[in-house]
Amino acid sequence: MVRYELLLISRKFQHPRQFELVMSGRVSGEQLAGLLEQQFPGQQWYSGTCRLEELELLPASERLLLSELPQPVRSAPTATSCLKLYIRRGPDAGAWIALSKGEHLIGRTAPLWLEDPLVSRIHAKLSVTTRGLHLSACANQQIAMPDGSRYESVDLEQGSRFILGHTEFAIGDPLVEGSSISVSPDQLEIQAPPKPEMARLIALVLAAFVPILSGILLALVTGSMLFLILSGVSALMGVVPAGQLLIERRQWKREVKAQRAAAIAARKNYAPELGEYFVSELDSASLGRPCAQVPPLVWGEGLWSPQDIAPSAPKGIHKVLRSLKKPKSDAPWYGPVFFPSTTGIWQLKTTQGQYAGSILASVLARYLPAIHAGRIRLVIDPSIRCLPSSLLLMRHVSSAQLVAPEESRHFGNEDNALSTIYVTAQAPQPVPGALVLGIWPATAECAENWITPHPVSAHLPDERLALQNLSPLSLARFDKMVHQLVALQKRSITSHLDSTQEPMLALRAHLGMSDQGEEVFLDLHEDGPHVLICGTTGSGKSEALRRIISDFARNYSPAQLAFALIDFKGGAGLSVYESLPHVQLFASDLDEAAAERTLEQLEHEVRRREELLASHGCSDIAEYQALDESEQVLPRLLVVVDEFRVFIETLPQANLRIDRLAAVGRALGIHLILSTQRPAGALTGQTRANLNTTIALRVNDQSESVELVGSTAASKLIEPGQAIVKSATKPTRNMQCSLAIEPPLHGELFERNRHDLSLMSLCRFEKAFVPMASDPLRAHAAELASKWESTVRPVSGFAQPLPLPEESAQPPETWEGIERGALYCGVVDNLHRARLEPLVIDRARSRSILICGLPEAGASELFASLANSPRKVLCFGPAPIQGTTGNLRVVTGEDLYSFLDAVDFLESMPQDPSLIIIVHSLAQLQSNIHPQHFQRLDEALGSLLRFGGAGSPLVLCAVDRDQNTLKSTGLCTEQWFFPFNATESLRMIWPKIPTCSPLPGRGVRISSGHPPQVFQLTRVQAAEAASSTWLQLTPSDDATLGAGTEPQNLLGYAPFDGAVVSRPMSQCVILLCPDVQQRLRISVALAQRWNGLQLSGLADLENFVRTLREGPNSAREKLLCLFLEATNDSRLPSLLEVLRSAGLNVVLCVPPSSRLAFDLGMSSVGLDDRQVVVVEATHPQDLQPMNWPAIPQGSSAHSGDYWRAIISKHGKPRMIHIPHNLAQSPLAVRPVPEESCGLWREEHHYGGSGNHDGQYRHGRHHRDIRAEERD
């Protein structure tokens, strides 16, 4: 439960009213205003000049002074270093007034308001003039002086003292008078040497007188003086040491007297009068010099006998003789009875009442400055009813039950140092680290020391002290002393809550509440620089981390504090805070590469901060932030690692980097919070030495608890969130961690009695129903993020994370090498420059890239994007995209002739910078073609990579396990590795690469002269190129191709690059076509194209030969296109021989046959492949007698526009396309010579009179149409 002390001041109240608000959690100013509205309707409350509703979250145990009107900031009515009239001792000790020029009244009225019953209302008047100070009594009163004299008026000066009733006054400035006095414990005791022994002196005197008496007797008996002389000499030898002993004794007495005087003066300075001490400390606090040490425990006045250390008290006559012989230097000294402030129990054997309260007030008044300074804290048992409630308005004062000692709470005070004062009205019990003051009528069993007020008797720890008088203090005066210190609390609640409005002097996060009901904070300046959080599963480590992050994110802006979160618990614990503007880095064990990237970035950040501080001449971040001319904001960085053991086991190199962060983090403003279940073996000595604070939640092993907090207490914690905080700068505390999201509030409001600490319940506040979000933690993080939505974020020293594959990265407007045709295809993670840079494929940097990984890892995405880019792409392998585009040409190997054409193209060393050559799916490509052809591809790529000039195309080769299939891959100047779905066997082939997230499109680039870089592929962007599409050949394009060549010489064109193919120069060209109709059509088309005569059948050939023998010689220059259905006629060889002898060029359109050479009457060697053209041969038998590969079925989408044919090119079969309708193009029309007209007319006339078949008539009719078109 969280407790608030409220002091409400209103004109509706007769006196200020004090309240205690007990709530289940911390409240904000708006919530508190709502609660007070229920009790005081229509009342507006202000804290200083600020409305209560404007205050943010209030710290627990906060003391609030609320009024109905704004209170301007005033100087507190506190003491200052000036001449004062103050009360040294008495019921009103500590009262004072500043002595300004004029007349000051002394009495039970203003300004001192004395409570001494022997002092009248106006007892005396003090006049302050330029001549001095004059005190005069009033109404027949007298003024007593310390020496016992009495006067009606007296002149005073600084240092003067006088007494009125039981009150002693003084003139002076206690701060100046006591500022140079410092007393050590050794000065409080007499440090004299041992007292000389009296027995030795007596022995020496006796030894001197015995020889003298003997000499006198012998001289009388013998009458000789010789014996007398000898005895005198012997006596003299004893008298000399006795005299020396007397001198030592006198010196010892003088030294003891001096030591006694010094010890008495030291005791007076160590325990000065209450009024003098309080006014001096009040002055010091008002001047910003808080209490330097804890004062002693002073009960009153009595006797101190410094030499009364005999082991047992004398009895009878010895006691009387001792009292008669006791030297004056051993007389007891009357002064304050005090004891060092140490832990223990003191009991006041009486019941509660005003007198008991005045005695406690006198004791506690000395501790008020130390409590105000925070050196000790005061805890008041709720059973106490004899102290004013104003005590609870002071910080470090709380009301709680006295806690019985338990083993789990014995920690942090091994040196028995005093940290707490407990005041209780029950039987006192010992509490570690506490001084227990109990009011109980019967002697408690655990009471070490006790005091009885009536009559005064005491059992004291020092037998030399005897308490004779107690020094009660007026409770009204004690209340005023408390209010004076409350007014000194300069830290306003508004400035404390709004840390963004003032310089960041501390980094504090609220952890929870201690067992004493006080707030526990984690301060990275005091408790840091680094923190360790340990606890077993379910102990609340992750919730504690979330609480710390939430509080830091609420109280500090992104310009003050940045986060680097590493969650190795699956990301479930800290991932909700990834959206905070403070978070500059986030990683989890779900992405090991991101965690390693975070480590690398932290290392670069350390180097960056070191260089930044060095360039400005600063030794640490505090000096840099104090500079006015700092060029950039440098926030502190909080690195949080959840499950640190798993983190270093996963990334073994993390330990060295964490060691460096721990060593240099404080100066650079980098703080670590490490969370783990077991610290043993996880932390190195370097890191452990810099962990100044440990938050130990429940652990299973007692040895781990001893290692963490020095006791077994952590192993005995039960509830989740219970923790022990051990710090190098603060005492160890038990606490309950708060939740990251506060539950609905409920509580109760109590009113305190003005004169005691009793409470009266006023109202209860029940839990309000608040509809919960589906994910309250994410909603809470979103609320924190919205708070800093409008703030300007500082420049981060970390690169932004690479975009995920599903994210669409905005391409830059320009990039390096865009004018040279460089391609933008992604972003590169440049950790050295802390930024993301464009991933550019630039031929000036690398003309070939080897892409390693499975196709789905990144190669397919890249090739598909390249296929859609404004660049020509030649792809060896399956098509990267569906459909066809003008810039993409795919060579799968299923069409051998397309593959051979593409290889021929590579062997020609193309000089086209805009061309991109892609080779992928090598295993599939290799299975589709002959090994010899695949080797040719390998050699062609190798030659292109070795000897390609500046204008050679870009080559991209994608491999997985088939990397060794192509030897030319070893010539690639750059390598890209995609680890997505890569098996271990595949990774073993690769070189050692940086850790990379296994995501599609995420890879590592390795090139000579550059460190490895991680990148993410995006859509390819490129500037428009001059030639970005392949030449697409259509029937209209065929005319253009034929324009540079005479139509009678054009056979077709190469389908790959559109090169013109002329008809074979052989006298006899053999055109093989298995289909009769296609064979006839091509015969007619070629006759038209080449201006030749088309003959159909052997009968037409015989008629033509007969005409040839009878006709003119000019007819012998004609070209014949002969269509034959079969070649097995024995007349054919003789007829062909006639044509050959006549020098006529003949194109034989014949069916394939294995006996073709024999049927045509050729030599047994066979046909010359240069004179053979095979058309639409899709089966091996269609190519007989040629031993060429068949044309694949349906390999062309334009089969209706051209015929696919195979010819011999450089001794190798290659495919060409023979267009259908080139003759229709005007560019292909060629005038027919006049001498040929007679022949065409004769052919036509002969055909009309002869008996020819229909095919010949079709050809003749076709020729007539051609003639008509020419006309």
TrEMBL record:
A Pfam family of this chain: Yop-YscD_cpl
Region listing for Disordered, in residue ranges: 1246-1271
Protein name: FtsK domain-containing protein
GO MF entry, a single one: DNA binding
Binding-site list for ATP: G535, T536, T537, G538, S539, G540, K541, S542
Keyword terms of this UniProt record: ATP-binding, Membrane, Nucleotide-binding, Transmembrane, Transmembrane helix
TM ranges: 201-221, 227-247
The FtsK domain, residue ranges: 517-706
